[in-house]
Amino acid sequence: xxxxxxxxxxxxxxxxxxxxxxxxxxxxxxxxxxxxxxxxxxxxxxxxxxxxxxxxxxxxxxxxxxxxxxxxxxxxxxxxxxxxxxxxxxxxxxxxxxxxxxxxxxxxxxxxxxxxxxxxxxxxxxxxxxxxxxxxxxxxxxxxxxxxxxxxxxxxxxxxxxxxxxxxxxxxxxxxxxxxxxxxxxxxxxxxxxxxxxxxxxxxxxxxxxxxxxxxxxxxxxxxxxxxxxxxxxxxxxxxxxxxxxxxxxxxxxxxxxxxxxxxxxxxxxxxxxxxxxxxxxxxxxxxxxxxxxxxxxxxxxxxxxxxxxxxxxxxxxxxxxxxxxxxxxxxxxxxxxxxxxxxxxxxxxxxxxxxxx
Length: 358
Hints:
The structure is a single chain. The chain is about 75% helix and about 0% strand. The protein contains 16 helices and no strands. Helix 1 runs antiparallel to helix 16, helix 5 crosses helix 9 and helix 5 packs antiparallel against helix 13. The chain is globular and about 85 Å long. It starts with a helix and ends in a 7-residue tail after the last helix.
């Protein structure tokens, strides 16, 4: 197991380098001049020359990439051309929101998706099965932005003034704000990785509220996450429900399940101890893929619900030709996907002892 983990982490290095190289080249091939985007169409040639000289854009792509890789090795992702801020600070500010949204959406979709798929498989061809699969097809077909707008309209406008009111947008209610943990714990002198981790935790409303004991902020943050998690989790829920049904039906028809029933085991033990565990392998694969996709930034959901996550920042950086931000976020997304796939691979050995990763 340790050899497998070490090998996968070692393979992460060429993967990240390859992704960085492709992204580096593609972002510079996109039509448009960052000088014109940042300084406006009336920018003079002298101003653009000074702009390109300042950010090293006059050098060849090979020199720029080599310089960028050297900075990456030192933990420096560069400075945003548009915001004039370190990219690491932007990542630490935006990533926690996306993580909270992803975890909430996947908990919702995985729990109810597996439950609905299980019920549907055990009641095959019944009215419950037909209704569940119809609902799954509808869930897959609904665009996220449309569902988000409908949820906001229903719970924020139609049900306004009732106990069922849910905030339609934003991360926290007016009057409630995050207090940096570095300020509370007097850790202003931190640098490097320690500063990044403290900033990452500090910008997470849930972790920040738990660590500071601010239960009012925790309740408000969770209340604001309900509609976004429901909207972005609907499609994964439908996918997981359909996968659970098909995988479980396949396992229930195998010989060892019939043998377990023939031995006199009660149906509950046959389902949960024998059938469901083996059926979980393709389900876990789907959950891992969906988690990686959501962690890369749910752009439409973040836009509809005005959430300051990675998706909206990434789109904004691409449109403004903010190369350092785009490249920094790509590195984070690539690492997230590789780490998620590693967790999925490790779960295979737990679910099926016959799988030997080493």
